[in-house]
């Protein structure tokens, strides 16, 4: 007869410890590798920024001469002194690879001056210069290297010319390679130490008790050790970044000192006494405001007397002689510390993304280990989370750069215009997603979940591959349509599985797995996709998305989940079922008052209005990304608690109404005069995230309860289709208010729409609340 003591070793024998150790170490290496690529991407972007801003300073004299001639009625080709200025600028800075001055006519832009005589006379499309900023340099990443350009207008406001300066890629590549060598060495050392510690800890855990305690210990071990190693790598990266940023900052301040010296020498050549120059202090103040690397500027005479000064010196002075006088610029030693502080926020985001991806992989691996005393239904649901996460991640990978990729195929020459051309594939995606959702539910009921999921993977795989290999704009339309149909099929199949495996008491918690997987994939996908696109290009990311769909299919088939047979949900979805659902006043009120307004707020405020508002508030793209990510983090944090409350206390309607009220009040923050603009935007994001986390899963569970007679799949399909309607309305609603007002008014209009819908939800009555 076996005793409980004998049972533990038998259980331990069933645990595949070697395979467990292999996958844990592999996942840890993946997390650290991801962190390394993100840190290197941040390092390269900072170097690009410092180099291009320094080149902007050096090219400012050339830009000023071009503008002065244009306002005097001269064409760029008639400004002959520009030729010498171009050659002087090229010789002054080896970091400049090419300079071109262009004359823009109706349909073409022709190079009239260049450092390379072979470029003279070459023509370019004039359309791109019509949209180029005429109020300062804009920056672009070209294949040959980063570049800056500015358009020049005449007195009538017509673009007549432009200036383009391209930075040399070799110095940036050398600096990036040096950083990569140092950082990968650090990561390799961290991986080695982490592997030894992990294997030693797993060896100790092998003798531990079975069941949930063993699983918790493995999770804590893997996550804590990986986060500790990631923190060590990030700390070392801070030190390495500081070593390379300080010389770049010094070089830029030297460029500013040279610029000021040249301007003062020009004034001296005109026999204007330096002590009689008007507005020097104000000019210094403007320089410091535009270039925070400079702490102070000072102009002094031959005796050392100060003629003009602004700022307080916090670093060493860089001086340049101007006749008998001198101009000095002081570096701000705290600038590097501030930029490293900004980097700390980015590194924190990187660690969060690494931890979330690792958590999903580890949870799926540990799910395969034997459990004692677990809940079979919830265990089966957990096994479905990884394939759902991987598939949604494949779509979210391109979220941050898809408009840029589409723009590279547009010319703006069609009757639609460039902006409409960029938006058309996105509109096609949303439309096909909405139209395919009802059919996906019908296919799920007829052919079964496994077949529909496989078909969806096939459609998405074809769409991503076609997008990656596209050579013309028209190819993007059917490619995105395929991705939309595949996304609809796979998400409905997974959602159908979740609903079919849960009873009323577990419905909200099961649906929380769906909402949670979507949120975590959204958090990870945008950050990871942007880094990979920066490192390897847009097309490789789409190819990786195609690979992720295959991994999702493999994870789906390997998950030990009881597959529901066709027809398990009841009758097939058709117009009769849809009419039956909307014939119930409670269901109609819930859809129009809960589902539609929630998506209006998500698409209209978060995806459309928030980036525009924060851009007006001088937020960088990285900062805007962190703001949008806050929404997904809050949803992921609040959603499990709301699901538990809905399941245990039956508060489905209360949580749905409470979430809607919170979202609506957050929108009204836009017209709160006592709130600064920045605080209003963040308040709206936080309210949207918490409100959605409170309402999403309980609302879906309530809809399934109300429409139980029509079948779980019918309810899920109708809900997703109605939500797509809200996603289409949201940007249109916000855009309509932006035309006649500002983003604050549009934000408030969204809040009013959500509050009105929430009042409509009060007409819903729950049955069977405990």
From TrEMBL:
Its main location: membrane. It holds the Pfam family MFS_1. GO terms for cellular component: plasma membrane. The keyword Amino-acid biosynthesis does not apply. Residues 380-769 form the Major facilitator superfamily (MFS) profile domain. It is found in: Cell membrane. It is a multi-pass membrane protein. PANTHER family: CHLORAMPHENICOL EFFLUX PUMP RV0191, PURINE EFFLUX PUMP PBUE. This is Major facilitator superfamily MFS_1. It comes from Accumulibacter regalis.
